[in-house]
Structure formats: C-alpha cells, structure tokens
Amino acid sequence: MLWRPEGGASARLVAGVAPEIAGDRLAHFRWASVTKLLTAYGCLIAVEEGIVRLTDEVVSLEGVTLAHLLSHAGGIAFDEPTPVAAPGTQRLYSNASFRIAAAHVERNAGMAFSEYLRGGVLEPLGMGSVEWSDPAAGAAGTIDHLATFAAELMSPTLLGAETVQDATRAWWPELDGFVPGFGMQRPCPWGLGFEIKGSKQPHWTGSTNSAQTFGHFGQSGAMLAIDPLRGEAGAGWCSLSPDPFGPWAKRAWPNMIDAP
C-alpha cells in the first residue's frame, strides 16, 4: 500500500502515469518550494518560444544569466535581489533568483508571469485551478495536480524532450552548496530549477535512487521526485502534507521511494 502523510496524499507514477494515489484527492495543499519547478517550466517554455534565452544577462545583475538564476548559481541572496557572490562560483539557494527569473520573462513576454504560466503550463495540463501567488513558493493544489505535473516531466508534451533532459542535468556541476534541511553538499548539483541527487548524502530521496534522480521538496511538506532510470521507463513519487517539513519527512519520503 502506498504511504501517505496523515491528512495528506501521495502518488506513485510508473512510465509517466499515476497508477496509484492515496489520501485526500480534493484538498489543496501548499507546495512551497516545489513551486520552483513550475516556474522553471514556464521559463523554459519562454526559451523555446524565443521570448528569452538562457544566456540572457538579467537587467541590473552584471554577468548573471537566466541559467544562473534557475540553477541557484547566480550568487543572489536568499530572499533579496542582491548579489552576494560572483555568478558561477557558489550554489546559493535563492528564492529571490526565481522571482527575478519570472520578472525577466514577464518583461519580455509583455504579460504577468502568472498569466503566462497559466496559459502555457497550467491550463494545457488541466491544472487551471492551481493557486498561484509567488514564483518561488506560492503554488497550491491537489495531489492530482502534482501527479499530473510529474507525469509531464516524465513524458513531456509542452516542452521538447531534449529541453527537459538539458534542464534535469547538472549545471555548473562542480559547485558546492547547501540543500535546505540537509546541510552542505560537496558538490551540490542542480539543474534548471530541478535539484539533482548526484552523490549527495544525506538526501531526501531513497537509497535506491539513481544519481540522475531530480525533483524538489518544500518546507510545506510537499515533494516531487523522478528517477528516469528506475525500471524500464522511469518512476516518480509526489506527496503533499498539512504538516511542515521536519524529521518525519526525512524518514517517510525515502521509505516511500524505496518501497517495492
């Protein structure tokens, strides 16, 4: 039986579908930093549409590109749009980076990022009722919404498969940095929005996950992980909880992922 958090919900996906969902399928839960994956996806759609480029230097931040921002390699402070290190030298986890990235798309698209994301990602995936307030941590939705997005990551329909593969590889792979809640990681690989497991220890995914596993978790108790090498066609897991991230998650998420 699929584990689920008390009062929450979880899903397991195989080959890009969600054959098993447990828990409350109607309740909306906060996604916290899992929101960054939606923001990154919207930015990548803007790249494919030619609205922005990953090599764009962001206004007022010399040498900081869109790719730097999405991979936490821009040297930007956690919650303020302030450079604190040279770009490409440290993995500094930054909410501000995602707000800056969304604003860059917004300027070039000529519309609010929330509108661009809704028309380019949420509505095409049937996720129009997902709530949205902030590009770094403001999404909220159901377990079915999160599982739908996980399925899109496994079998992309809105982006080219090559774009998703490029986004889920490590950018500036040699950089060290902190994973919130898990301490310093040397190195600390990150893709374009997607955290990459690599050789990180400890980690919030399972002991059986490959180094290519990617995803994100949030301080709200939300998580999404995809292992493209699990089984014949990959596997994914996602979970939403009414309880904030804590020691329970460090035990429960790896156990869920490692379960047969």
General description of the model:
The longest helix is centred in the middle third of the chain and has 15 residues. A hairpin with a 3-residue loop joins β5 and β6. The chain has a six-stranded antiparallel β-sheet with strand order 2-1-10-9-8-7, sandwiched between helices. Strands 3-4 form a two-stranded antiparallel ribbon. The chain has a two-stranded antiparallel ribbon with strand order 5-6. 29% of the residues lie in helices and 15% in strands.
Labels describing this entry:
7 helices; 260 residues; 10 strands; alpha+beta
Give a brief rundown of this model.
The protein has 260 residues and is an alpha+beta fold. The chain has seven helices and ten strands. The model has no long low-confidence stretch (mean pLDDT 96).
Describe the SSE topology.
Elements: E1 9-14, E2 17-23, E3 29-30, H1 35-48, H2 66-70, H3 95-109, H4 113-122, E4 140-141, H5 143-154, H6 161-167, E5 177-179, E6 183-185, E7 195-196, E8 214-217, E9 223-227, E10 235-240, H7 247-258
Antiparallel strand pairs: 1-2, 1-10, 3-4, 5-6, 7-8, 8-9, 9-10
Helix pairs in contact: 1-3, 1-4
